[in-house]
Amino acid sequence: MSNRSSKRERITKETSVRVEIDLDGNGNSEINTGIGFLDHMLTLFSFNSKVDLNIFAKGDSYVCDHHTIEDVGITLGEAFKESLGDKYGINRYGTFYVPMDETLALVSLDVSNRPFLVFDCDFKREKVGEMSTEMVVEFFRAFAFNAGLTLHLKVLYGENDHHKIEALFKAFGRAIKEAVSISSDNGIPSTKGSL
Ligand SMILES: [Mn+2]
Fold first, then answer.
1. Alpha helix (H) ranges present in the chain?
2. Phi-psi category of 176—alpha, beta or left, where left has phi over 0 and alpha has psi -120 to 50?
3. d(CA 79, CA 60)
């Protein structure tokens, strides 16, 4: 594991979640949340961001998928924030468009420590696999607010909900990769002197 890594565990009466993250990884992941489509999305996020991820979650799926997905977002966001440390040298901003067949998605973000979410996407289906489409925004909100991201996501157009969600997670991965990349010119990337 590199310096920019973290391990977090979060246990409540509803879920238990373990996350290991390494920002300077190779995009390797081992993900088991009990929700297959979420595992697929987090695998794509890891591959596209080059962030190594191990995530294990066990939740009250007899209730529904809500608690597990939200708590994975919270724990992953906390681990991401911790792994960034003082953010010295990072690019800070990341913006990426990803097409997937008929769909085009845009993600633009700022590792600002000013949590904000703009989510402009509509889905037609109630679920993709075992994941409720209404939980996509909840996942990104949980991540953004616990990681300290200003995060904007938009599907510009598209038909297929699997493609829309997948394009968002891939674009999110690419934008994160850009934002956390370190350059020797950057220093602390704010005129305030801290982020
Ligand atoms: Mn897919």
1. 36-49, 66-84, 134-147, 161-180
2. alpha
3. 22
Strand partners, 137: none
HSE-up of residue 189 (Cα within 13 Å, Cβ side): 20
Residues with beta carbon < 5 A to ion ligand 1? 166
pTM over 0.85: yes
Distance 162 CA to ligand 1 centre (A): 6
Distance 91 CA to ligand 1 centre (A): 29
Cβ atoms 128, 171 nearer than 8 A: no
Q: Which phi and psi angles does 160 have, rounded to 5°? A: -90, 125
pLDDT tens-digit map of 100-111: 999 999 999 999
Q: What is the pLDDT of residues 140-151, one digit of tens each?
A: 999 999 999 999
